[in-house]
Amino acid sequence: MVSIEYRLEALENRLRAVEDQMEVYQLIAAYGPAVDSLSGAAAAALWQPEGSYQAGEFAFSGKAAIEALVDMEPHRSYVADGCAHVLSLPHLTITGDTAVARNYSRIYRHDGTYWRIERASANRWELARGPDGWQVVRRTNRLLNGEEAARALLKP
């Protein structure tokens, strides 16, 4: 017979795993609304202080650079036209205090009377749990344009 202490510890471990997963999901889900509302500080808060974000030829390192990305072109034009950064539910692997998430992202842009997909990308998020909870260490984003670089981000 399994002891109550063992069962309680197992239950606590399972609950911690579910809580970690939900926290990472919430973190990734917060990105689109932050950048679409021009809330650079909210976007930067998702990253660790030395975290980085590479999107094609653009590379941002540190919270100040990530915060400033909402004021860059073409992002400002997207928001002025009406846009939505929409991220898919990520496939998530958590190992202790680190995690890797892979997902897709799309940017919908208003174009007259309809919205079109402006960009479709593959993403790899590397995250770590710290004193402030889970945060992004590195995000890499590549356009889904047939090149191997995007497919490589999606591989387990």
Detailed description of the structure:
This protein has about 160 residues and is α+β, with helices and mostly antiparallel strands. The protein has one domain: Nuclear Transport Factor 2, Chain: A, CATH 3.10.450.50. The chain is built from 5 helices and 7 strands. A hairpin with a 2-residue loop joins strand 4 (about 90-95) and strand 5. The longest helix has about 35 residues, at about 5-35. The protein is elongated. The relative contact order is 0.15. The model has no long low-confidence stretch (mean pLDDT about 95).
Short description:
The protein is α+β, with helices and mostly antiparallel strands.
Provide the domain count.
1
Task: Name the overall outline.
Answer: elongated
> Termini, distance in Å?
38 Å
N-to-C SSE string, H for helix and E for strand: HHEEHHEEEEEH
Specify the oligomeric state: single chain
Provide the descriptors you would attach to this structure in a database record:
alpha+beta; seven-stranded mixed beta sheet; 156 residues; 37% helix; Nuclear Transport Factor 2, Chain: A; 7 strands
List the helices and strands and how they pair.
Layout: H1 4-36, H2 40-44, E1 47-55, E2 58-61, H3 63-68, H4 75-81, E3 83-87, E4 91-95, E5 98-111, E6 114-130, E7 133-143, H5 148-154
